[in-house]
């Protein structure tokens, strides 16, 4: 049913669809590989992004397949996210994603400081701040990530970089997405926080509405 699922998400109005690739090594869970992502491409035109929650070996040996599967309907670069913690040679991996025709992006686990990626910020299109520990859906949002988001946004502005800041984990249409947006995030990944609504469109619209309000200064306080 994955084909029907991505079509439903496109009709709901999402900007991108994120695929969480887990190898049972870097994270204690197992999902799917590039074949599943590639199979979904023919069912919708919405851009894809793939988060590689995988070991360095998996990332390096299968990187070309992931980049290819993530590309758009007409071959446009898809967002491919490498984890800073999983890749000893992060600079090389990000450069290879670009060379293969992808949009290189980097993810940080909750315990990883921004300083770990400061020297590759000129290579990426997106920085993903994990607001839960990766590996499972439905986890509780970690509010202490806000300072990291602010630090990254400040750096992006000071260096005049064209980099999006994403957040992923426990994001709901409440104070969580509101405060992340106020801190400087502008891309929001929601799983259970979107599927909790009677329809996907309601979930998508509500999440977007709260985020846009926050960017205009209407912030929801933490309960």
- Please count the beta strands (DSSP E, at least 2 residues each): 7
**How does the major sheet shape up?**
7 strands, parallel
Give the DSSP E fraction (strand runs of 2 or more residues): 15-25%
Sheet/helix structural class? alpha/beta
Q: Shape, please? A: globular
Question: Overall pLDDT, averaged?
Answer: 96
Q: Give, in order, the helices and strands.
A: HEHEHEHEEHEHEHH
End-to-end separation in angstroms reads 37 Å
| Subunit arrangement of the protein | single chain
Stretches where pLDDT is under 50 for at least 5 consecutive residues are none
Number of alpha- plus pi-helical segments: 8
Summarize this, please?
This protein has helices at residues 2-12, 34-40, 56-70, 90-99, 146-158, 175-183, 192-195, 200-215, and strands at 17-22, 48-53, 79-83, 103-108, 126-130, 164-168, 187-189.
Question: Topology, pairings included?
Answer:
Blueprint (H helix, E strand, L loop, with lengths): L1 H11 L4 E6 L11 H7 L7 E6 L2 H15 L8 E5 L6 H10 L3 E6 L17 E5 L15 H13 L5 E5 L6 H9 L3 E3 L2 H4 L4 H16 L8
Parallel strand pairs: 1-2, 2-3, 3-4, 4-5, 5-6, 6-7
Helix pairs in contact: 1-8, 2-3, 6-8
3D structure, described in words:
The relative contact order is 0.11. The termini are far apart. The chain has 8 helices and 7 strands, in the order αβαβαβαββαβαβαα. Strands 1-2-3-4-5-6-7 form a 7-stranded parallel sheet. Helix 1 (2-12) packs across helix 8 and helix 6 (175-183) crosses helix 8 (200-215). With 223 residues, the chain is of the alpha/beta class. The chain has helices at 2-12, 34-40, 56-70, 90-99, 146-158, 175-183, 192-195, 200-215, and strands spanning 17-22, 48-53, 79-83, 103-108, 126-130, 164-168, 187-189. Helices cover 38% and strands 16% of the residues. Helix 6 links the parallel strand 6 and strand 7. The protein is globular and about 45 Å long.
């Amino acid at each position: 049913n994955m084909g029907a699922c991505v079509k439903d998400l496109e009709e709901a109005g999402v900007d991108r669809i994120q695929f969480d690739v887990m190898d049972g090594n870097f994270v204690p869970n197992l999902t799917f590989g590039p074949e599943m992502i590639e199979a979904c491409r023919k069912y919708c035109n919405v851009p894809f992004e793939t988060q590689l929650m995988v070991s360095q070996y998996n990332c390096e040996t299968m990187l070309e397949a992931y980049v290819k599967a993530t590309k758009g309907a007409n071959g446009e670069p898809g967002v491919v996210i490498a984890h800073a913690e999983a890749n000893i040679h992060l600079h090389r991996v990000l450069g290879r994603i670009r060379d293969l025709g992808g949009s290189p992006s980097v993810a940080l686990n909750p315990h990883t400081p921004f300083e770990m990626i400061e020297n590759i910020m000129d290579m990426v299109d997106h920085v993903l701040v994990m607001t839960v520990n990766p590996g499972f859906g439905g986890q509780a949002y970690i509010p202490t990530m806000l300072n990291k988001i602010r630090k990254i946004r400040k750096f992006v502005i000071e260096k005049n970089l064209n980099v999006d800041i994403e957040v992923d984990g426990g994001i709901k249409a409440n104070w969580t997405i509101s405060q992340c947006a106020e801190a400087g995030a502008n891309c929001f990944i929601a799983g259970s926080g979107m599927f909790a609504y009677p329809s996907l469109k309601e979930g998508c619209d509500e999440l977007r509405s709260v985020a846009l309000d926050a960017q205009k200064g209407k912030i929801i306080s933490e309960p």
